[in-house]
């Protein structure tokens, strides 16, 4: 999840023009997707992703990252957390509208690779509250937004984390990878 230094994942209107990405970050994203066979999205992020990735690799000018991520996106199983899509059918995706926590717990108990989430701050906040997040990969961007969409929910109890890795990218972004204790 990209986050500003003051803890926001988007500007007041969801703006993401402050996020720094480059080939170095795309390479790390490719490594994460290779280890994953399931992606969870909130509705807004899924709509954004699904509006681009299914055909992104088909363009004659597609980058290596676009080709690889498009291929992964098209084959990976997806879960979309959404009340507004309830009852609809999406190819290669399951919509979860109710009883999110027990359903995600059930998915986590199944054998398979890792589960990954890109973006989806509202869904992440819900999963944090339900103790369903095992690791955080925070891409701290060198910017203070002042206001916007907060990364973390108001918690009822403290959550301890263990720093697993830190990495500084040439573009100024710092990855902080934590496990939840």
Short summary of the structure?
The chain has helices at 23-34, 43-50, 53-56, 64-75, 100-109, 121-129, and strands at residues 2-4, 8-10, 36-42, 77-81, 93-96, 114-117, 135-141, 149-150, 161-168, 174-180.
Q: What is the global morphology?
A: globular
Helix content: 25-40%
- Sheet having the most strands: 4 strands, mixed
Radius of gyration: 16 Å
Helix/strand-derived category reads alpha/beta
What is the count of helical runs?
A: 6
Q: Please state the second-level CATH architecture.
A: 3-Layer(aba) Sandwich
> CATH homologous superfamily, by name?
Dihydrofolate Reductase, subunit A
**CATH topology tier name:** Dihydrofolate Reductase, subunit A
How many domains?
1
Determine the strand fraction and express it as a percent band.
25-35%
The chain-level mean pLDDT equals 93
Order of helices and strands: EEHEHHHEEHEHEEEE
What distance separates the N and C termini?
A: 19 Å
**Which CATH first-tier class would you pick?**
Alpha Beta
Topology record:
Blueprint: E1 2-4, E2 8-10, H1 23-34, E3 36-42, H2 43-50, H3 53-56, H4 64-75, E4 77-81, E5 93-96, H5 100-109, E6 114-117, H6 121-129, E7 135-141, E8 149-150, E9 161-168, E10 174-180
Can you walk through the features of this model?
The protein is built from 6 helices and 10 strands. It is of the alpha/beta class and 181 residues long. The chain has a single domain (2-180), classed as 3-Layer(aba) Sandwich (Dihydrofolate Reductase, subunit A), CATH 3.40.430. The strands form 3 sheets. Strands 1-7-10-9 form a 4-stranded mixed beta sheet, with no helix packed on it. A 4-stranded parallel beta sheet has the order 5-4-3-6, sandwiched between helices. The chain has a two-stranded antiparallel sheet with strand order 2-8. A hairpin with a 5-residue loop joins β9 and β10 (174-180). The chain is globular and about 40 Å long. The two termini are 19 Å apart. The mean pLDDT is 93.
